[in-house]
Every structure is written in C-alpha cells, then in structure tokens.
Amino acid sequence: MAEIKVPFHRASITKAEEDAVLDVLRSGWLTTGKYALEFEKKFSKALGDESIISLAVNSNTSGMVLAMEACGVKEGTAVITTPYTFVSTAACARTLNADVYFADIEKDSYNIDPAKIEEILKRDAENGHKVRAIVPVHVAGNVCKMKEILALAKKYSTKDNKIYVIEDAAHAFPSPTKLGYAGAIGDIGVFSFYVTKTITTAEGGMVCTRNAELAKRMSVMRMHGMDRTTWNRYTSPKASWEYDIIAPGYKFNLPDILAALGCCQVDRATLFYQQRKAVVDKYNEAFKDLDFITLPPDGEGNAWHLYLMRINPDKLTITREDFAKKMQAAGLGISVHFIPIFHFTYWKKLYKDFTAENYPNAEEQYSRTISIPLFPDMTDEMTEYVIDTVTKIGRENHA
Questions:
Q1: Please, which of 21, 83, 252, 376 could form a disulfide with 62 given CB 3.0 to 4.6 Å?
Q2: Low-confidence residues of the chain, pLDDT below 70?
Q3: What's the CA angle centered on 332, arms 326 and 334, to 5 degrees?
Q4: Does residue 28 come out as left (phi exceeding 0), alpha (psi in the -120 to 50 range) or beta?
Q5: Residue 379, SS3 per DSSP
C-alpha cells in the first residue's frame, strides 16, 4: 500500500480544543450540559439569527430522524429526496416506516432537480398526497435551488397536508445566501459535525428551526420522550428524579465532551472556509485549461466542503476507477461522493424501478467524479503535489 503523502482530510485541532475537552473531563459532568447549551447558542448566532432554535444531537442521521418525525413522516407517508447522497438521508425515512421518492439531480450539478421534484409532487397529488417532506441535500456545500423548492412545497401543500422542507445541510456550513444560511432556509435544517465535515465534534450534528412547535417536539424526542433534560434535572432545585415520559423517544443527545470541540470549532468556521477556498482557487486555476477535467459546480453560498473533480472520460484512455487507483498509488487520499443509492442491494430490492437507467444524471456524475484532498490545514506543498499528480496522470493517459 502506498504511503499517504496527502490525506483526504485532517481535522484542524488546536490547544483550544484540547483545553476545552480537558475542562469537561475535570468538571465531573461529561454528558449533555453547559457546553452543549453553549454550542447551540453559538451555532444559532453563526447562522446569523440568534432566534433560530438549535438542538445539538449525536449525528446528522439522528437529527434527520428527529426532523422527519416532527414533520409527521411515518408509515403511509413519503419523503422526496435525491439518490445522490449518503444513504442515511433516505434511510431515516425508512426508519420511520415511510416511503422514499427519489428525484434525479440536475444535469450540470450534484443537487436535486426542482423540475423532477415537481413531477413527483404532481403524481402524488393524483394518488392521495403521501408526501410530507422534501429533503434537498446541499452536496459538497453547494446550495440547492431553495427558492424553487420552497415554492413547490407551498404549491402542493393542502389544508390537510403541509409539505415541509427539511434541508440536509451536512456539507453546508457556513453557506450564506440571499435567502439566509443554508440549513436555516426551510422548515428544518440538519447539520453534520462528523470528523471530515467543515467543523467537527468527532461525531455529532445540529438540528435548526424557527418553528417553536417543531423544536419542542424534537427536543423531547431527542432524550427518551422525557419532559426534562438531564442537565435540568441535576441543576434545578426541583428533584432530579421527577420527570414524565410523554412520547416514545430516542437517545440522540450530544455529550459535553464533543460539544466542547464544537464550541471551539464554530469560532473558526469562517477561517476554515477561507483556508479551504484558497486551496479550491489553486485547484481551479491549475485545472481550468485541462480538457480531461471539468471543474466542480459552484454557486451562491458554496461552503466548499468537498472538491468534486470530474474527469472527462472521452479525453482519457483510462476509466475513473483507473484514474483513482493511480492517484492512490501516488499517495493521495481520495474518495467518491457519492455512490448513488440505487446501487445498493437493500434499495434495489425495495423499489424495482430504482435503477441507474431511471436516474441518468446521478449515474453520469457518479461515473466521472473523484473527491480529492481539501481541508483547512493543507500546506502549499500538499496542494501542489495534488495538482502535479492529477495533471501528470491525465497527460500520461490522454486520448
């Protein structure tokens, strides 16, 4: 196996994060407490609106389950999302026994196509209004066409069936747009703080909404359906053992050890973006005139979480898989975002028409894409090595 010369990602951890974690360890309170509350407040402020209700959770996945459940996603209902995402986006709906309707992505983007969403909504309206939520995914931090998506949700909502917009904003922080920050545009936004994301708590996520009723439901369901948080029970003058269970909830809270990391990371989110963008600019400048590469799509508010390099197979004598293997052999950490969900056994068995042929844009982008290293602490030497390696492979294998 080749020595890794440039990792795919490396989290930026400083003494501030180390000190914050040690503070939690020495405090005697390791689970959800004051650091989680502080992280929630800081995150709302970072989204440009301190009135946003932010709820820290242990993953984006758990946050998506909370969001969907609060919006009435359950057996007999459905959500619309994209096949071009990590599988958890759709799996959360199945966890709640709901169906998933998939809309193909745009031809020149990795994001869900509003026109395809409307095709599904039209059919749904004719067949009984099962759709409870549209779940756009801001792939790589490039923001979906939220104005159009919000308009579709409003257009096809009825008196008896409101269609919610739940943003999978796992890649999209910070992503400011004219409509607001991605993740704070729809009814609910769900973020990820997995180790490779734009900020990290190692594992974790955040659910954000301006709707107090939805927030209350998610807060209760986040912690066993309990009417009091653990922090409240042990810091309030009211007896700690007095509580009620008002719903069959989950165990989705974020511990203070991880929240302490988040408190430090969110303070550097803008710096991290600037550092990633500097690398992106170098990549774009180096690759723009290479006919075997198409630059990643870009748009307003792009957080540049990932650099999705698209090869042009008609200009090469090798496949995407061969190109990727050569990059790995040269010591580059790479990935592919994403394997479309229709390639997975469970989903192929569940929906017989869920095939690559029916989602040509998702399949086309997948067949061409390689995610290359992009993280805040990349040195100039690392960036140049990636550029030189990609250029060398392309030129040596040019058609």
A1: 252
A2: 1, 229-241
A3: 90
A4: left
A5: coil
